[in-house]
TrEMBL record:
Record's function text: Cytosolic CRABPs may regulate the access of retinoic acid to the nuclear retinoic acid receptors.
The protein's name in its UniProt record: Cellular retinoic acid-binding protein 1
InterPro entries named among the record's database cross-references: Calycin, Fatty_acid-bd, ILBP, Lipocln_cytosolic_FA-bd_dom
Protein family according to the UniProt entry: Belongs to the calycin superfamily. Fatty-acid binding protein (FABP) family.
Alphabetical UniProt keywords: Retinol-binding, Vitamin A
Name of the coding gene: rbp2a
Organism (species): Takifugu rubripes (Japanese pufferfish)
Record Gene3D superfamilies: 2.40.128.20
One Pfam short name: Lipocalin
SUPFAM superfamilies: Lipocalins (SSF50814)
Segments forming domain Lipocalin/cytosolic fatty-acid binding: 14-130
Length: 172
């Protein structure tokens, strides 16, 4: 059993390249492509040994898929094109690799962790979408640091420049 290097729970998408081209390769209609290409998804991943529970959440559509490494299963791809495929997820080194056999050739995804990012490549025919997701806890920590720096800088400025404490409406 392999364990992903990062504690994966709630991840927010920070980049999404070439998703519309993948959707075109899957024959997804124009209106759905336009809506889906502007969504900011959240991914929830829970690993229990070789079993994975995953959720992809957005304001448009939510999708859940659970799988066991090395066990093929029938999947209804409701998150994208709503086709039935036979899905198999395996490890290739430190990458999870998914092959989806069905109507469309060369279909599936790969995901792996580098640093504090979860990378996801979605493939359909000859098109590849590249996404990066970051743990919500990491994003909140960065936001806290920026907030702290901003507040600290403002307090230092006020303490070093007494005139900055004066009310600009009242004058000196």
């Amino acid at each position: 059993m392999k364990v992903m290097k990062m504690e994966l729970e709630r991840m927010l998408m920070v980049t999404n390249e070439n998703f519309e081209e993948v959707m075109k390769a899957l024959d997804i209609d124009f209106a759905t492509r336009k809506i889906a290409s502007h969504l900011h998804q959240t991914k929830v991943i829970v690993q229990k040994g070789d079993k994975f529970e995953t959720q992809t959440l957005s304001t448009f559509r939510n999708y859940e898929v659970n799988f066991t490494i090395g066990e093929e299963f029938e999947e209804q791809t409701k998150a994208l094109d709503n086709r039935k495929v036979m899905t198999l997820v395996t490890w290739d080194g430190d990458k999870l690799v998914c092959v989806q056999r069905g109507e469309k050739a060369n279909r599936g995804w790969k995901q792996w962790i580098e640093g504090d990012l979860l990378h996801l490549e979605i493939t359909a025919l000859d098109k590849v979408c590249k996404r990066a997701l970051q743990a919500l806890a990491t994003l909140l920590h960065l936001l806290f640091q920026v907030h702290h720096l901003f507040c600290h800088h403002s307090l230092v400025e006020v303490s070093q420049n007494p005139k900055s404490r004066q009310n600009p409406r009242r004058g000196p």
